[in-house]
């Protein structure tokens, strides 16, 4: 431990200013507390009266503002919108309540501070500090008391008691941990599968009608969900969080990735809408370059090249859904995604 | 009441009440030490007060909001008075938040005060923390209180996050989804953590209720305890004060709690509350009715978290998307590394007091606050840390920067990736040099006085500027700071030529100490001799 403390002379002693010859005066010595300078209120009773009136006025304004608050609450309808320069169209009730409450509070504060600054004594006085550390005799007493107490308990001597106590204390929190088990189900394969399956029709998110190839124009971005999923379903949010699909049409000769072309229908390709970074829905499409951009963290994917990541923090391409056309001429899935959608996770593989 | 014989005339009611309380609580002993307790005055001391008061405001308004908010994710169809949302499916949480905004008179105001106060709370804590850092007010005996304050800042961030997630609107839901994605990236247990937190697959029907109990009970409960401990320690340690005539390490100079700080600090609470109420009246915050209810397949552009979460957003945005696949497993480094750096950014500032104490080896109490310039290395570190934080904030808002300044988002991202490593170093060097320059100027001022602007022509034609000497108080102030000597480990071999064994870390400590206090890292204070020589008339400046 001695190495921890440098030799005392390394620590600067308080306020040294270089060696001083005996009897010489230190030019940097502390001149001590400056004399108190009176304020105008301290010497002029009229000024003090003025301050008193100012403080009282502020408190009166506060009272009036509270009355105005109550009046506004009663008088203004909650749905009335008015134009107030420069704030624009605002709810008159919110505006009036906020301003009156604000003034009522602010004036109490302003009055109190003004009172303190102008009328209460502003004489600065010193107060002694005491060392935070306890004096050595207190320390010695505490140490002794502690040793005595521990000795009386037999904690060190009766090792069997001590060790079994440690064991019991270490085990008992396990019950608490156990109780957390039912916070949720085990992951199992839940994140690996979506609602998509062979034969599920692609339903247009906006019209709620089955999508037909001729509905998908070049340059457009269409969102789809699986047939059978309804917004009123109990698990709609969980299902759409995985199954949300985006559909674009690209000229087949512009599709660079062979598998992508195989899994498309006449240049119509379907990709998961859920970003592989942290799961935001991707919604910005550049029709010239076929790039899609996630608006949350700007991961950019090239939909004409297997949805490869070309910029941003995403780690792998968007999963593609293999699609075809069924007997009624509607677009349908030819299976589920071949890999989990959304953010990567340990078991994703 | 007194146990002695009853006095002829009864004491006033107030006194009798005080006696009653003292007989049961021992109030007088407490009041004796605290009622006229002396507090020093400095504008920067009110930053902590702003934090405290906004915390109280948040609690008051938060309690009001719980009277109307329904922490449930059950789906309902909106039939309230806000026409654009009528007929839309939403969770009860969102529905009740819209009702607070449009059907409860004053509800919108309280919601906005609550949210504004939260932003101000975090901002005030941040600035307060920086004040304590740059003035060295974290030194012994205040290290523990520094940690309490730091914990309050971190818990405040998470209380804020769970709070703004409660309305279950499209923006906050996107933030929760981001959090879920980050949790999934945790190796081995990520999917389990996510399932347990959300009660199943995201978003599930549980997280609002769970966040609610975390937001209104668990975290604020801990924070309340920490605030109490923080304040008790402030009272116990007494404030730091800046060097000035009559102020020493052994005293505290200021004005008494009763009446000055009762009025000033008490009044300041009303000033803060009043200003936040006015801000809430004129500036809309988090208009969830315009954002709409959360759907995992919908999003808006320009999504931003509240400011205090921005640096974590920056980490996740600029990190390259590294993924390692092996043996059927995926290590999602692109998300997991930011998740690990996130607490490290915060920890870097939290542990600093202990690093500095180790380097100086100083075990004395410090109650005189440093001027930042007089601790150039510490000030450099602090400025570097702030620059680091702000670089990440830029990264977190890279889309906003791109659209507002017509820049390429790719360029901004690359700028942040490089700046993350480079800018703190540059800022450290620049800050340290600025501090040294200021120290030099102080020394100059002490020795030669202040430039008066009066130019004098000497008989032989030379022009000199007349300097006004400083008075003693100013000279004292500019030379009151302490200067450490660098630690020396001594020769590598002892007098017998045998290699000395240095304890582990001791070499590093000596090197750090040299970097802090060695030659060229601080300007020696003027000595009395120097001063005498210059002022004795030999020099003519």
Automatic annotation (TrEMBL), chain A:
- Main location per UniProt? membrane
This protein's source sits in the domain of life called: Bacteria
User: Which keywords, in A-to-Z order, does the entry hold?
Assistant: 2Fe-2S, Cell membrane, Disulfide bond, Electron transport, Iron, Iron-sulfur, Membrane, Metal-binding, Oxidoreductase, Respiratory chain, Transmembrane, Transmembrane helix, Transport
An example Gene Ontology molecular-function term? monooxygenase activity
All copies of domain Rieske, residue ranges: 261-332
Classify the protein's membrane topology as the record does: Multi-pass membrane protein
Coiled coil spans: none
Of the GO CC terms on this record, one is:
plasma membrane
Signal sequence interval, chain numbering: none
Q: Which residue ranges does the record annotate as region Disordered?
A: 1-35
Where is the protein localized?
Cell membrane
Please give the start and end residues of each transmembrane region.
55-75, 95-116, 160-180
User: What PROSITE patterns does the record point to?
Assistant: RIESKE (PS51296)
Q: Which family does it belong to?
A: Belongs to the Rieske iron-sulfur protein family.
> Subunit structure of this entry?
The cytochrome bc1 complex is composed of a cytochrome b (QcrB), the Rieske iron-sulfur protein (QcrA) and a diheme cytochrome c (QcrC) subunit.
Function field: Iron-sulfur subunit of the cytochrome bc1 complex, an essential component of the respiratory electron transport chain required for ATP synthesis. The bc1 complex catalyzes the oxidation of menaquinol and the reduction of cytochrome c in the respiratory chain. The bc1 complex operates through a Q-cycle mechanism that couples electron transfer to generation of the proton gradient that drives ATP synthesis.
The molecule here is called Cytochrome bc1 complex Rieske iron-sulfur subunit
Which species is listed as the source?
A: Streptomyces montanisoli
UniProtKB/TrEMBL annotation, chain B:
Q: Would I find Translocase among this entry's keywords?
A: yes
| This protein's GO CC annotations | plasma membrane
Tell me yes or no: is Oxidoreductase among this UniProt entry's keywords.
no
Keywords assigned:
Cell membrane, Electron transport, Heme, Iron, Membrane, Metal-binding, Respiratory chain, Translocase, Transmembrane, Transmembrane helix, Transport
Identify the residues that the record assigns to the Cytochrome b/b6 N-terminal region profile domain, covering every copy.
Answer: 17-243
- Write down the membrane topology: Multi-pass membrane protein
Query: What is the enzyme's class at the highest EC level?
Result: translocase
Its primary localisation, in coarse terms, equals membrane
Q: Name one GO biological process term.
A: respiratory electron transport chain
Reaction equation(s) it catalyzes = a quinol + 2 Fe(III)-[cytochrome c](out) = a quinone + 2 Fe(II)-[cytochrome c](out) + 2 H(+)(out)
Pfam family of the protein (one): Cytochrom_B_N_2
Where, subcellularly, is it found? Answer: Cell membrane
Q: Where are the transmembrane segments?
A: 50-69, 115-134, 146-166, 211-236, 257-285, 331-355, 375-394, 414-431
**Mind telling me which InterPro entries this protein's record contains?**
Cyt_b/b6_N, Cytb/b6-like_sf, Di-haem_cyt_TM
GO MF terms listed in the record are:
metal ion binding; oxidoreductase activity; quinol-cytochrome-c reductase activity
Give the EC number(s) listed in the UniProt record.
7.1.1.8
Q: Which coenzymes or cofactors are required?
A: heme
Q: Which PANTHER family match?
A: CYTOCHROME B (PTHR19271:SF16)
Instruction: Output this protein's name.
Output: Cytochrome bc1 complex cytochrome b subunit
| Organism encoding this protein | Streptomyces montanisoli
The upper taxonomy is: Bacteria, Bacillati, Actinomycetota, Actinomycetes, Kitasatosporales
């Amino acid at each position: 431990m001695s190495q921890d403390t440098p030799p005392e002379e390394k620590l600067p002693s308080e306020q040294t200013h270089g060696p001083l010859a005996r009897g010489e005066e230190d030019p940097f010595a502390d001149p001590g507390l400056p004399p108190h300078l009176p304020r105008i209120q301290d010497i002029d009773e009229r000024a003090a009266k003025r301050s008193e009136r100012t403080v009282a006025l502020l408190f009166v304004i506060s009272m009036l503002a509270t009355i105005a608050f109550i009046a506004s609450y009663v008088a203004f309808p909650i749905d009335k919108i008015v134009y107030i320069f420069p704030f624009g169209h605002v709810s008159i009730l919110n505006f009036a309540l906020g301003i009156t409450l604000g003034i009522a509070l602010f004036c109490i504060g302003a009055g109190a501070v003004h009172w303190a600054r102008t009328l209460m004594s502003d004489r600065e006085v010193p107060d002694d500090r005491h060392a935070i550390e306890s004096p050595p005799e207190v320390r010695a007493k505490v140490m002794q008391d502690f040793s005595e107490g521990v000795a009386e308990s037999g904690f060190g001597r009766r090792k069997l008691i001590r060790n079994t106590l440690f064991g019991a204390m270490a085990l008992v929190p396990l019950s608490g941990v156990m109780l957390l088990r039912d916070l949720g189900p085990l992951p199992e394969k839940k994140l690996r599968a979506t609602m998509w399956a062979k034969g599920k029709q692609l339903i247009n998110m906006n019209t709620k009608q089955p999508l037909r190839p001729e509905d998908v124009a070049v340059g457009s971005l269409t969102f789809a969900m699986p047939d059978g999923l309804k917004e009123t379903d109990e698990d709609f949010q969980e299902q759409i969080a995985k199954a949300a699909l985006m559909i674009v049409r690209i000229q087949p000769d512009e599709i660079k990735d062979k598998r992508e072309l195989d899994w498309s229908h006449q240049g119509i390709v379907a990709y998961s809408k859920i970003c592989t970074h942290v799961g935001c829905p991707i919604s910005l499409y550049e029709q010239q370059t076929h790039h899609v951009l996630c608006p949350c963290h700007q991961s950019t994917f090239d939909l004409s090249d297997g949805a490869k990541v070309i910029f941003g923090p995403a780690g792998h391409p968007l999963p593609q859904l293999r699609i075809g056309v069924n007997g009624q001429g509607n677009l349908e899935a030819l299976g589920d995604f071949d890999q989990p959608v959304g953010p990567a996770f340990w078991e994703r593989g | 009441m007194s146990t002695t014989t009853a006095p002829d005339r009864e004491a006033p009611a107030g006194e009798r009440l005080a006696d009653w309380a003292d007989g049961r609580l021992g109030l007088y002993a407490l009041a004796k030490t605290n009622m006229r307790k002396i507090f020093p005055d400095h504008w920067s001391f009110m930053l902590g007060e702003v934090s405290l008061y906004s915390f109280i405001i948040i609690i008051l308004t938060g309690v009001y909001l719980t009277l109307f908010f329904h922490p449930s994710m059950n789906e309902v169809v909106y039939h309230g008075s806000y026409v654009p949302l009528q007929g839309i499916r939403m969770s009860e949480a969102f529905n009740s938040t819209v009702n607070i905004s449009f059907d409860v008179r004053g509800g919108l105001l309280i919601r906005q005060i609550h949210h504004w106060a939260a932003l101000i709370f975090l901002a005030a804590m941040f600035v307060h923390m920086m004040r304590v850092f740059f003035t060295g007010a974290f030194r012994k005996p205040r290290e523990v209180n520094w940690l309490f304050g730091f914990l309050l800042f971190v818990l405040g961030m998470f209380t804020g996050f769970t709070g703004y997630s409660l309305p279950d609107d499209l923006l906050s839901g996107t933030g929760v989804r981001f959090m879920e994605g980050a949790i999934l990236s945790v190796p081995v247990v990520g999917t389990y953590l996510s399932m347990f937190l959300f009660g199943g697959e995201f978003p599930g029907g549980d997280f609002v209720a769970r966040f609610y109990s975390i937001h209104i009970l668990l975290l604020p409960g801990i924070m309340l305890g920490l605030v109490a401990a923080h304040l008790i320690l402030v009272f116990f340690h007494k404030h730091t004060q800046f060097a000035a005539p009559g102020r020493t390490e052994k005293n505290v100079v200021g004005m008494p709690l009763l009446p000055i700080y009762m009025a000033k600090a008490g009044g300041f609470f009303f000033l803060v509350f009043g200003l936040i109420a006015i801000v809430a009246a004129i500036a809309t915050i988090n208009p969830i009715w315009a954002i709409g209810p959360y759907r995992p397949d919908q999003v808006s552009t320009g999504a931003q978290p509240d400011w205090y979460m921005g640096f974590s957003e920056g980490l996740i945005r600029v990190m390259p998307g590294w993924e390692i696949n092996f043996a059927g497993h995926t290590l999602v480094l692109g998300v997991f590394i930011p998740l690990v750096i996130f607490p490290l950014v915060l920890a870097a500032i939290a542990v600093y007091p202990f690093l500095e104490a180790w380097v100086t080896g100083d075990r004395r109490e410090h109650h005189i606050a440093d001027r930042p310039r007089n601790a150039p290395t510490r000030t450099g570190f602090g400025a570097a840390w702030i620059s680091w934080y702000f670089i990440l904030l830029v990264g977190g808002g890279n889309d906003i920067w791109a659209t507002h300044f017509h820049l390429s988002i790719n360029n901004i991202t690359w700028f942040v990736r490089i700046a993350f490593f480079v800018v703190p170093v540059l800022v450290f060097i620049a800050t340290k040099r600025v501090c040294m320059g200021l120290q030099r100027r102080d020394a100059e001022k002490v020795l030669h006085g202040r430039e008066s602007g009066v130019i004098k022509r000497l008989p032989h034609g030379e022009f000199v500027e007349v300097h006004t000497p400083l008075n003693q108080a100013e000279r004292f102030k500019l030379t009151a700071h302490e200067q450490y000597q660098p630690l020396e480990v001594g020769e590598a071999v002892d007098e017998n030529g045998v290699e000395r064994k240095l304890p582990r870390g001791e070499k590093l400590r000596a090197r750090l100490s040299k970097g802090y206090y060695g030659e060229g890292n601080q300007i020696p204070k003027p000595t009395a001799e120097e001063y005498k020589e210059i002022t004795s008339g030999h020099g003519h400046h």
